[in-house]
User: Fold Amidohydrolase family protein from Saccharopolyspora cebuensis.
Amino acid sequence: MDQRPESLLITGVRVFDGLGDAAEPGAVLVEGDRIAATGPEARDRAPERAEVLDGGGRVLLPGLTDAHVHLVALGTEPAGLATASAGLPHLRALEAARRMLLRGFTAVRDMGGDVAAVKQVIDEGLFPGPRLYPSQAALSQTSGHGDFGAVHEPPVALGGAPSRAEEIGFMRVVDGPDRVLAGAREQLKKGASQLKVMAGGGVASRYDPLGTLQFTPEELRAAVRAAEDFGTYVAAHVYGSAGVRRALEAGVRCIEHGQLADERTIGMLAEHDAWLSTQPFDVDDHHYPTPELAAKNTMVCDGVERTLHRAREHGVRLAFGTDLLAPAEAHRQGAMLARLSRWLSPVEALRIATSGNAALFRMAGERDPYQQVIDGHPTAPLGVIRPGALADLLVVEGDPTRDLGVLADPAANLALVVKGGRIWKNSLG
Assistant:
C-alpha cells in the first residue's frame, strides 16, 4: 500500500512517544509529512476530510531506526558483489530497503556502500524504503578492514588497480593523510551525511587480526577535519581498546562495535561525549567461510554483554544497530532489537531504537538530508511522537514496552507502517 492522505487521524491506540516510560491512551493526527497534534487535540483539530484509522487498542510508536546497516550487502551475497554486473547490487539494495521499511525501520544509517541513487529513488517516493543517512564508501587503509583486493595484487597506493569493492563504491582504500583527505571529500561530494573509517581489524576481512591498529593518528585527523569542515562527524569501525582510544583522541564522534574494549576505554567514550553504536550479536547472526573468520566472530560475540554492561555503568550514549551483511541475514533485524531485552528493559531499548538513534543521526548537522536547522535547532524532530515531528510511526499488535518480542515478527505484528505521512502497510481494516 502507498498513499498519503491529506490528513490522517489514528484513534484507539496507546501511544509510546519515544521518550516516556509507557504507552498511554491517545490519538495522533498527521497532516502532510508531519505529526500535527496528539491526544485530545488530535481529535479536536482533525478536519472532516481526514482519513480515520481505529487502532483497536494497539500500541502506536515512532518508526524504528537502525544505526548500522549495509543495504548493498543486504541485497547481494558477498560472492555476488564481486561478479554482478554494474548496477545489479544497487537494484537489489532497493528491494532490501523495501523489506526493511516493512519490518518497521523507517530511518537507518548506511555505514558502507554507494547508496546515493537508492536514497534518491526512495526520497522521491518512487520506491518504498527508510530514510537513509549514507556514509557512502567506508575508508580503509591498505591491509585494513575494507581492503578486499587479492593478496597478489599491488595496492592502489603502489600503482595497483582498485578492487571490485572499490569499483562499486562499497569501500575506498586510501593511505596517508592526503589520500584520506581526498577520499573523505569524495564521499561528502557523493552525498555522505557522515563519514565511516576503518580504525581497527575486522571479522569479515582476511588481512587484519581484530587487534590491529588501522590508520595513523594523522590519517584519522585528516578524515575528522574533512567531516568537521562540512558540518558533520566521523564514525569508526573498531573493536579493541587501543583502536578506540586512538579514534577518540583524533576526534571521532561515534565508535561502531567496541565489543573488545576494556572498561577504562569504555569510560573514555563518556569523557569524550562520544557515541557507542554497538550490536547485540549472537554467533549465528553471521556465517563465515573459514575457521579463522569464525573464531574472530566468536570473540566479538563473547564481548557483547560485557560491553553493554560497561557502557551503561559509565553513562555512554548507546545506539542500536544490526550490521547484517547478506540477504539471508536481513530478516534478523527485528529479532536483534528484541534481543536487547537480555540487558535492557523493553522501554530502554525502545528509546534507543527511536529517539536515541535519531539524536545520533541528527549529529550530521548541515549534512542531515531530512532536516532544516534554524538558529541551531531542528525544525522537524525524528524518532518521537509529538507535534511537529516527522510522521514516521507504527501501530503494533501487543505491547513492545513490555515485550520486545512482538517486534521480532513484523509480518504478523506490524499492523500499520507510516513514513513521512505515507501509508506503506495497513492491516487495521
Notes: The longest helix spans residues 346-361. Residues 381 and 389 are 4 Å apart (CA to CA). The two ends are 13 Å apart (CA to CA).
